Amino acid sequence: MLNDGYGFKKVYLATGYTDLRRGMEGLAAIIRFQFNLDPYDRNTLFLFCGKRSNRIKGLLWEGDGFLLLYKRLDNGAFNWPRNDSTALEINYEQYKMLMKGLEVVAKRPIEEMEHPPKTM
Fold first, then answer.
1. Measured CA distances, 101 to 5, 35, 42, 105 (Å)
2. What ranges do the domains of the chain cover?
3. Which of these, 66, 73, 89, 95, is most buried using a 10 Å CB contact count?
4. CB atoms < 10 A from the CB of 97, how many?
């Protein structure tokens, strides 16, 4: 279910570190009070990662209750953004990259220059 990502209207990453001992109510409280988002937004997946980058938890409201997802990789790790503790909305392509262990947010993104350098 987590590998394909089809059917999700939105996907949010809880950047930084999350205590994965939290259950549905604890994760929903983070979504509502720390990120000011609605955990009851149907077909919106919220993903969380702890200190170990080989496991994530997901929270999804299905209309009649929460679905709590847990994934632990046998080999490899998720390349999780750890810069701060915010909710980062990602698109489908970024989601696929994350599930393959690739970087979703570049550590040193290439910035466009206003004026190209002069050449001689």
1. 15, 25, 26, 12
2. 10-91
3. 95
4. 15
